[in-house]
Amino acid sequence: MSLELSSIDEAHLSSFAQFVGCNNPIGHRPDGRYGMSRIRFRSSRMANDLEWWGVIPRKTHLGNIPEHIDDGLLPHYFRGLFDGDGNIYSRKRGNRISHTMSLAGNIDVIHTVDANLRSVRIPSNAYIHDTNQDTGFETWILVINGIGAVRNLVLWMHYDDADAPALPRKRERAMKMINDPPPHRLAPRELESATTCPLGWPPSASSGGSPATRCCSGSRAAGTDSLRPCPGASDRGSA
């Protein structure tokens, strides 16, 4: 088994190795601007566990999201997907700033993520990005655009929870999108997304913080780590 990350995330790789009790050295190879860092080890137990959770050899092309994942764990599973195969960034055009999150994967993974996000009222769009001419494998991209939609997504995936494991670099970007005030007046549709809980519950006026933070912190069911289900929404979708 091997785990490879950009060398700017090597500290995260070291934390993983410490957590699983692996003392193997971290290897390096040149690739792009920062290079890559990789750790290798053997564990049949971990390989079997990962397969149960849809992580298999050539997972980018052949992997899937298992249907047996509990709804309360789904936001954490998706956070891992975006940490590994996703992107989060802002673009500035004049005096306007737009937020975007994207995820790369095969058609089964992307369509399942798309269906689940829509079930909690987070709009997304999927399209084919590339087809490998040698293998015929298609790479799909899922895109979430807009200040409100991206804020709701990072909150739903618990990036604001310091105890929830996440790639530090992406958590830093996610928190910036949660905490930064909108730099411009929002369009009506974007304003509705920014001030309405992604699960359909109105924000609590007494809980403080931004509208999105009030909404999601106030919508977690008491004594649980999951958000309340969207009223009238169907169970999470599948591809």
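Next protein, fold it too.
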Amino acid sequence: MPATASPYDQTKELTEKLEDGMKELFSGDKYKAYLAAMSHFHNYSTRNIMLIKQQMPDATRIASYNTWKDLNRQVKKGEKGLKIFAPINSKPQTVISPQKHGFGGDFCFGDIEQPPSLWYTWAGSKTNCQ
């Protein structure tokens, strides 16, 4: 991904990777591997677990730069962070689709005009203490 890609383009690319990963999830031993990942990242959303495993399949612990710093660990110089979506702490608004404005109309949850924020995290293996 080019360094000059817009936040929208970065979000779109990550979303496409996420969709591909979800399609592959139920094939072979991948579901078992996904459940193992869930046991390591139980506080993360499904989409972030998928993104973590796509970017670094052997990751078992991740944290932000500042969290590693608070734990007296330093991220090794030159290590690239794993991109995940920032948590969304607010409930999406329910918007009635203008095309179907009557009873039984379709609902669209959270019309996203601005893409969600991206966070960078690093695996424990990328710090100075194993």
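About the second fold: Residues 7-126 form one domain.
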